[in-house]
Amino acid sequence: MSSHSCDSVNNITVIFHKIACNYSCTKKIIWSSTFSRPPKMTTGITYDNRMVEHKCLWDLNYNEKPERFTSILRRCEELQLLNRCIYIKPRAATKEELLMVHTPEMISILKNTAGFSDEEALEQLSSKYDFLYIHPSTYDLSLLAAGSTVELVSNILDGKIKNGMAVIRPPGHHAMKSEYCGYCFYNNVAIAAQYALDNQGLKRILIVDWDIHHGQATQQMFYDDPRVLYFSIHGYQNGAFWPHLRESDYHNIGRGAGLGYNINIPMNEIKMGNSDYMAIFHQLILPIAYEFNPELVIVSAGYDAALGCPEGEMEVTPACYSHFTNSLMGLANGRLAVVLEGGYCLKSLSEGAALTLRTLLGDPAPFIQNLDAPKKSAQQAIMSAMYVLRRHWNCLQHLEEFNVQEIKDPMNLPEDKFWPRIEFVGSDEKPETYATRDICPAQDPKVAAELDAQLDDLIASTCLDTQPNRVGFSTNPAEPIVTQLEIIQRCHMMQTERSEISIAEETSGTFSNLIGSILDGTCRSGIAIMDNSSENLIKTLKYAIDSRVTKNVMFIDMRNHPDVEIQRAFQEDVRILCASLYSPFAVDDVELMGLNDSKRYIVNISLQTNCGDAEIFSSFFRVLLPIAYQFGPQLIVIAADQSGNISAECFGQIIHLLTSLAGGRLSVTFENSLVTNSGINRIKSCVQALLGEPIGMPGEIYYRLHATSVCTIRTVIKAHNPYWNALQFNMGVPDVNVLVPPFMNDDKVLRYNPELLHY
Ligand code: Q9C
Ligand code: ZN
User: Fold this and answer.
1) pLDDT in tens, 462-519
2) 218 vs 185, 193, 213, 261, CA distance in Å?
3) pLDDT tens-digit profile of 124-142?
4) Which end of the chain is less packed: N or C, by CB atoms within 10 Å?
5) Residues 352, 261, 396, 731: what is their CA dihedral angle, to the nearest 10 degrees?
6) Is-contact 5 696, C-beta < 8 A?
7) Whose CA is nearest to atom 6 of ligand 1?
8) CA distance to 101, 140, 700, per residue, from 114 (Å)
9) Ligand 1 site residues, Cβ closer than 6 angstroms
10) Nearest-ligand number for the alpha carbon of 214
């Protein structure tokens, strides 16, 4: 829990402030000296300039090169990010720290090469390992990389910084217990995670590995350990992609107590991009991460899935890394450590890494455009992972199962049924020695130039604007004010224009003031407490859409009381997507009220009144978030109230996740009705989310979902599937384990993970 969230509700005086006689002065905020500002929670960065020394002496074209390090720091400097960070002093890892995950030989072999100048001998030793070079500085720098990562994590756990990034080399996620591999010597991330378990007593750590290569070493180290959830997205090509391992496939989900705590999303096609990766986040990483509820998140952050990288041949844009990052920042009270792994196209590497750091610092995630349907093979990878994990994670309950007895020909299934398959084209043989030169993939110069130009365009067109005020706060002077809340005082107080005519007039003035200050860039986001009548909301939305700066707006009704008026008002306006989460409409639950083409712009997820966080989260991840990403709004308007079963934390988390969209331009208006304790907590949580402060986690998120809610979610997905092709994950899966011969024609896979057969 953050240290400043202790101003308990009891201490708060809620003033129901009636503007008494004269309207001549603008509302005064009562500043209380008893509220002190919370400690500034900042972002740390660790790096050491010596890290440029490690290089390949016999192959100057080697892609794991010093410029990777310098280009990242240069770009961070250019964007003036470094001076906003707290510098975490790098240090060498201790022997004890290395021995937590490595054998003593892993230390001694490399130690013997320290300062060793016999190039030939270095090359010969390197050739014993799969993709590796050793330099006289390698031993010291590997220690430094590992130690700095531990330092970063321990500073986060001590609360000295909120989050941070380690810009380090050599990387770590291929360094196994007793084997160097893939440019890696010591497993920086695994060492830091083990340190957090052993020295700080952590019980749940999430490791997200978005490097294009499978972090097989990290997987192996925590394969039996339910305290560490390892989640990797990687290129696979059925084993044709390096490191060519069976263990990288999706059915390797952990062992023993760790079963279900290892998640692989292997991709069997190149050119996967933002849509595919965001789908993996929405359908798997986020729901599972929220269910797991980690105390710390560590990212093995490679940028080799980025556009332009010859290793990955994928197409993730640099701005998408901001989205990955922001979506993980709501977890673990914001305790997020990003640790550099691979990334070999200097332009997308430096841009992606810099945008990651910028997001850690709290700047808004830039827009990512043109989210399209995930590729067929991405859909298959996601469905396969859901299939093998469905018994382990409650958040996967929405999966429909079909009776395999009724299937005559699995090779010939209807479209709405999915049959998981496993194929392996790699080889199990390991060579005695490996090539050491000319082994890095070369890019066709023409292709390289094209990609380079594409990146230049992307970088030039990425809006990195920031606003002088992060959160504007506004309340109608005639309404109850909660401005004494300590956290509200950290918002930018907006003046309310007096109206001679009426309170209603004034309310709508407050509304447009709020939206206006977001649209003109004075505030990034805003929150208001006022009369949330349909009339006012309609006016607000009209105002927003008619302003020349917004092309489209997403409206999300999160109130407990049905309100079809707003949807009626915009049912033919394709510029406004009206969604409702959790408001049971009086009308037929799934009736789509839009007309013709605008049907897709009305999305109602009408959960039952007794639903709670589990159902809300589920609908949000499965339906609302994917649709929101595909719609790509330039502004989000949310109407909220204080009733209903949604917890303050769940509400705050949803607001946080929505800040990834629309450049963070988001307005939340709370119905002023009766300000209750739970209402205040919800408002507080919302402001925390908008301010980028730790939000906290709801209690039990994923108990079994109400059967009716599961049904509602499925129905909405089916209804909107034709319009929003991000919703492609509603296929049925077999009700028993089918990953057995003849469909899984390889018994080695079976031997590797026999536990899967239990299902
Ligand atoms: N054609 C990291 O990204 N390259 N290590 C294989 C085969 C090996 C990757 C290319 C890549 C090692 C940290
Ligand atoms: Zn990599």
Assistant:
1) 999 999 999 999 876 655 556 667 888 889 988 766 556 666 666 777 778 889 999 9
2) 13, 10, 12, 12
3) 999 999 999 999 999 999 9
4) N
5) 70
6) yes
7) 242
8) 21, 7, 51
9) 131, 171, 174, 182-184, 211, 213, 242, 302, 304, 311, 341-342, 441
10) 2
